[in-house]
Amino acid sequence: MAVITDQLPEKYHKAMLGWQEKHFKDFPYLLEHWQEFYKQSPFQLVAKLGDLKSEVIEVGAHAGKPKFQRASEMDEEMRAQMLKIIRAQASTELGSVQQHRESLHKAQDPKIQFDVLRVMAEEFRHGYQMIYLLAKDDWGGTRDVAADTIDELLSMETGSHVLEAFNVYFDSFVDNIVFAALIDRVGKYQLTMQSVSAYAPMARSMGPMLVEESFHLATGVNPLRRWVAEATAGHGNVSVPNIQRHINKWLPRGLEMFGSERGGRTNLEFGFKDMLNKEAQERYYQEVKEQVIDVLNYEILKVRLPGITKKEAIALADEVLATGESKRGIKPEDLIYLPAMNFYRRRGIHAFEMNDVRGQPIRSYDEYVRHLRTVLPEAYVTGRDFSTYLENLRRHQGGEVVDEGPLPFYG
Ligand SMILES: [Fe+2]
Ligand SMILES: [Fe+2]
Q1: At residue 86, what are phi and psi to the nearest 5 degrees?
Q2: Which residues make Cβ contacts (< 8 Å) with residue 370, sequence separation at least 6?
Q3: Which of 12, 170, 237, 397 is 20 to 30 A from 306 in CA distance terms?
């Protein structure tokens, strides 16, 4: 992939550094210590544009026509939608930096901590990339949308983000890691779907971002593998049930980031994405099973049953979890499970249903809340996001239509 790098015009570049000074004070540390951790050339705050895989629009109503090089070539509705996508993406990228910041200092291992710091810097670059798309084009009207967006981002704190998952606070370093394994994976889907974008500068942005995204996924999955192996061997400080509770906290939010299960048609028609929400969500769910759950159970079972193959390990874990019975000395609670698709949802077709982690309905409100308290992290259920959920659940049950803020742009 040939990659061209470029910087924002000075005024915007400076404004982004202003954001960094306010919200990402650890950034200079990354640049100073990069060589101690990596051999690759150091991080640079630049926009990166990769090749355009297809010169013509790949999906939707305009399929076969040349891609739009400039925003002005799109009709007003498409331009407004693309602007919305770019601004929401800028917001989530920078939002994740603010979330990681909450508990970065709680890490025990300096290398894992530095990897997360690098993830944060790359998310900052992704935000920069989106601002670059805004600044380099004419979005119609008299507003300077790039400057407006930066201004908005400057004043944005966790709690005021477009996407609900970015309003959930991090309570411990386990959050940083599980977030990278699960939520960055949604990002990967998002970027992959957008690599077909009919708006050429967006399509060209996705390749370099996806390269970085694979590092983010590894930053999540590798420490989890190590932690479950250590815990199973009887040492280490992060237990298997603790990791499970964090998976239960984040997976439902990840599923909702794909948007309503009935939606996605507009973006498909405009040629901005190549999958409907539901299809992308289902593929993501399956990938979490294979790339996270199966991988962790293999690590656990390698410690318990030395010499076991990956295939055997997955089959054994699936059976123990499905039957709830021990086999070869392995109990369900020794393993990591995939929470059900309909568990702890507050958006989409399963919003405010009362289901347990296995997907079975729970009739009584009190019993349901007791269940949630045992399967979600303790620090999380004592926090604001959980109390908001309970309030909204009550309102929903009282017949009110509860809409938790604007719908994710993934929709
Ligand atoms: Fe990102
Ligand atoms: Fe990421």
Answers
A1: -65, -45
A2: none
A3: 237
Ligand 2 centroid, distance to 351 Cα (angstroms): 26
Give the Cα separation of 336 and 292 in Å (integer).
9
Q: Is 206 exposed, middle or buried (0-12, 13-18, 19+ CB in 10 A)?
A: buried
Task: State the DSSP string of 175-240.
Answer: HHHHHHHHHHHHHHHHHHHHTT-SBHHHHHHHHHHHHHHHHHHHHHHHHHHHHHHHHHTT-SSS-H
Task: Give the chain's length.
Answer: 411
Cα 183 to ligand 1 centre (Å): 10
Q: DSSP alpha helices (H): ranges in 72-172?
A: 76-103, 110-135, 145-154
The pTM of the full predicted model, rounded to 2 decimals, is 0.94
Count the neighbouring beta carbons within 10 Å of the beta carbon of residue 121: 24
Tell me what percent of the chain is helix, strand and coil, each rounded to the nearest 5.
60, 5, 35
* pLDDT tens digits for range 168-199: 788 899 999 999 999 999 999 999 999 999 99
Q: Compute, in angstroms, the gap from residue 363 CA to the centroid of ligand 2.
A: 38
Asked whether the beta carbons of 207 and 195 are under 8 A apart, the reply is: yes
What does the pLDDT look like over 16-64, one tens digit per residue? Answer: 999 999 999 999 999 999 999 999 999 999 999 999 999 999 999 999 9
Asked: is 4-159+173-221+263-271 a CATH 1.10.620.20 domain? The reply is yes
Q: Is 183 left (phi over 0), alpha (psi -120 to 50) or beta?
A: alpha
Ligand closest in space to the Cα of 209: 1
Q: Which ligand is nearest to the CA of 217?
A: 2
Count of Cβ atoms closer than 10 Å to residue 406 Cβ: 13
CA dist list (Å): 86 to 111, 213, 292: 32, 17, 29
The closest ligand to the CA of 129 turns out to be: 1
Q: Give the ligand at the shortest distance from the Cα of 179.
A: 2
So where are the chain's domains? Answer: 4-159+173-221+263-271
Q: How far is the CA of 120 from the centre of ligand 2 (A)?
A: 8
